[in-house]
Amino acid sequence: MIGFLTLLKREVMRFIKDALDTIAPPTVDVILYMLIFGLALGARLGEVQGVSYIQFMMPGLILMSIIRNSFYNPAYSLFQSRWDGNIADALSSPLSYTQMALAIILGGVARGLLVGVLVLIAALVLTNLPFAHPILVLVYGLSVSIAFAGLGCIVGLCAKNWEGINTVNVFLLDPLVLLGGVFYSLEMVRGIAVIESLTRLNPFTYIIGGFRGALLGTTEADAIIGLILALGLGVVLVMLSILLFRVGYHLKA
Amino acid sequence: MIVPAISFQHLRKAYRNLIALDDLCLDLQPGEFFGLLGPNGAGKTTSLHTIIGLVKPTAGRVLIKDLDAVRDYRQVHRLVGITFQEFVLDAQFLNVREILIYQAGYFGVSPKHAGSRADELLQQFALWDKRASRVQELSGGMKRRLMLAKALMHDPEILILDEPTAGADVELRHQIWEMLQDFHQQGKTILLTTHYLEEAERLCERVAILQKGRLLAVGSPKELARQRDQHRLEDVFLELIRSDKQ
């Protein structure tokens, strides 16, 4: 257990010690979104699903922060350790492959949740969030962060260069998140065929919608469907990460 | 019967167009100081990496005190400390002392014990003044010593050293030799690869000479020289490598 906790501590200290590069920028980024889209533009949009626009967009922004940061930490940490060769420290230790994968994933969960909480605090300064189903909010945050830390772990193992990680972010994560209804409801895009279809087909729509329901009490998406999707994704991605560690994918010759 | 500290049993490693190890059979006795010699690409590093699971054998197996290096990897890793050819140091955000403490942590050493062990090794390896420095601030020789200290943090029974003196100046090389002789006297089994044949001659009780993954000869440096009517290990080495090429 000491070995597992040591690796987990390493993964956490990695972003804590470098907080100006790892925690501050994504938090400030999202606060700017809040100010520009929420306060400046949102005042002209009126109510969406029975809440003000700034309230409407907050759950999506919080989840977006959790997703991105949970993904980045394991992806960059693992790739850099492969790049520098010091992944051999863990591989030549008595840690099991499952322990290695889980410690790296939990490091990502910690960063995702930390940034999520900071964004939530900023959101509470700017607007009121009712926390309609607080337990669900917590379970959502955890399951989404586990799922995307798992994805980060897989990408950190599979990437052949630094650009590989950015490619996944730019071509997969960003489109899925931004077309998942962070800034708009399905009602708002009705009639815009391309956006409406992409949004309806996007599983993130149900995850973000469900989280919005848990936080605000709005009902456009079923909170349980989103949760099942997030949990399912989490289980699959974590299992896949462990499997890749066990077979030594890009770790062993 | 004495259980070998390390036993390579019909070990074979093949990559697409290359056979890195070809039916390697070799036993190292507990407490032995053993040298693995050969030209570049002979399979020395590959052999070492099979012990700690960084290379998966194509066939055969490696046993460490009768434990299978693949199946029982967690128990095997507890017994082994390794220094790599390259400077494998977690330089992302840790200082010298932290590198040692984290290393011990991976092996299950409690933070309290890891701290005192790190301080002991920092003094022994003349790195105490650099304990708060980042790896980037260390000279090549200091990095070599840090790598060695890192391998010793969990007090392993078996020490595997992949070219531990590569790039070291004469003084540092002698320092490292003295340290290795101390560890050997403490009863540790040491498996070392090196390109410096006088180093192998001076330190190793037995050596094995590899070429293209095949074992050409094994024995004590004196024995090998006597068998071939030579005076130095270097002459034996050259004779074996040249005749194998023909």
List the helices and strands and how they pair.
The complex is a heterodimer of chains A (253) and B (246).
Chain A: H1 2-16, H2 19-22, H3 24-45, E1 47-48, E2 51-52, H4 53-84, H5 87-91, H6 97-126, H7 134-158, H8 162-178, H9 193-201, H10 203-216, H11 223-247
Antiparallel strand pairs in A: 1-2
Helix pairs in contact in A: 1-6, 3-4, 3-6, 4-6, 4-7, 4-8, 4-10, 6-7, 6-11, 7-10, 7-11, 10-11
Chain B: E1 6-15, E2 18-28, E3 33-37, H1 44-51, E4 59-64, E5 67-68, H2 73-79, E6 80-83, H3 96-106, H4 111-124, H5 140-152, E7 158-162, H6 170-185, E8 189-193, H7 197-203, E9 206-211, E10 214-219, H8 221-227, H9 233-245
Parallel strand pairs in B: 3-8, 3-9, 6-7, 7-8
Antiparallel strand pairs in B: 1-2, 1-4, 4-5, 9-10
Helix pairs in contact in B: 3-4, 3-5
Strand count, sense and barrel status of the largest sheet of chain A are: 2 strands, antiparallel
Order of helices and strands of chain B: EEEHEEHEHHHEHEHEEHH
Q: Helix segment count of chain A?
A: 11
Distance N to C terminus of chain B: 40 Å
- The count of DSSP E runs of length 2 or more, i.e. the number of strands of chain B, is 10
Summarize the biggest pleated sheet of chain B: 6 strands, mixed
Helix-strand sequence of chain A: HHHEEHHHHHHHH
Rg over alpha carbons of chain B: 18 Å
Strand order of the largest sheet of chain A: 1-2
In the sheet with the most strands of chain B, the strands line up as: 6-7-8-3-9-10
If you average the pLDDT of chain B, what whole number results? 93
Q: How many strands in all of chain A?
A: 2
Distance between the termini of chain A: 28 Å
- How many helical stretches of chain B? 9
Task: Indicate the structural class of chain B.
Answer: alpha/beta
Quaternary form: heterodimer
Helix content class of chain A: over 70%
